[in-house]
């Protein structure tokens, strides 16, 4: 099923996408949660079963008549991200930095992204033109942890995934290069578009999904999740060896080649640009640069 956060008269609500693609409030299933985080962390198997039943119904609100919010507007913790987790993106990244790449990726690159408030599908991304001239896009598959994970084996790791969504890991390349460490350049306000909804893990096999991005209608990224160097199961297992992944933890699995810095000359984002991130089986995440 697909779960989303939306707003009515300024009040955030959690809903499911119905059989007719309408939005049905979870209260229609007799379930009351204060937000998506609460639903992920506290829902029982019985409650999730009731929500799946609700998703087979119709007659809810038209998607065009609601205000979409980021699926998780306020993450419980910083988002855990993976760097250069597609080999072709590793090549373009090293080329941009003018560093020789030996073609090997033995270990994952992990970093965190501060998110005061995530951006909804259809929402605006700030250009931050006063501090950066090289704002970039990164279409990524994201997962949300369903229950606390510690010392999880790779073969059991996907049992800890609540669902999947799309993240656009907006990045300031010049700030990244100035500070060497990526945290600041990845954490500018309104730099985490997240949506349009969560597809629960029981309904989506993410082992081979097309992933694309478009800027002003031009295809920029075009790859497949089968090309991830370190897949979701590996990442969950690896991280859980040393840290507890709490329920509600968000992990973004990295972006393929085709980002703005990978072109000659680079194709960075400007005010008015429209970015669409697409992942097969999930949908589209569309945003405008303000």
Characterize the structure shown:
It is a single chain. By secondary structure, this protein is α+β, with helices and mostly antiparallel strands. 16% of the residues lie in helices and 30% in strands. Strands 1, 2, 3, 4, 5, 6, 9, 10, 12 and 15 form a ten-stranded mixed sheet that branches. Strands 7-17-16-13-14 form a five-stranded mixed sheet, with no helix packed on it. The chain has a two-stranded antiparallel sheet with strand order 8-11. InterPro entries: Fumarylacetoacetase-like_C, Fumarylacetoacetase_C_sf. One of its GO terms (molecular function) is isomerase activity.
Summarize the structure.
By secondary structure, the chain is of the alpha+beta class. It has helices at residues 36-42, 45-54, 87-96, 173-179, 183-186, 232-240; strands spanning 2-8, 11-17, 23-25, 67-68, 79-83, 109-113, 124-125, 135-136, 139-145, 161-168, 171-172, 194-200, 210-215, 218-224, 250-252, 274-279, 283-289.
**Uncertain segments:** none
- Summing up helix and strand content along with how strands pair, one would put the structural category as alpha+beta
What would CATH call the homologous superfamily of the largest domain?
Fumarylacetoacetase-like, C-terminal domain
* CATH domain class of the largest domain: Alpha Beta
CATH architecture term of the largest domain: Alpha-Beta Complex
Average per-residue pLDDT, rounded, comes to: 96
The rough form would be described as globular
Provide the helix percentage.
10-25%
| Rg | 18 Å
Helix and strand sequence: EEEHHEEHEEEEEEHHEEEHEEE
Strand content range = 25-35%
Q: Kindly report the CATH topology of the largest domain.
A: Fumarylacetoacetate hydrolase, domain 2
When the domains are counted, the total is 2
Total strands: the figure is 17
How far apart the termini lie comes to 32 Å
Largest sheet: 10 strands, mixed
Number of helices: 6
Family: Belongs to the FAH family.
InterPro entries: Fumarylacetoacetase-like_C, Fumarylacetoacetase_C_sf
Keywords: Hydrolase, Metal-binding
Organism: Campylobacter hyointestinalis subsp. hyointestinalis
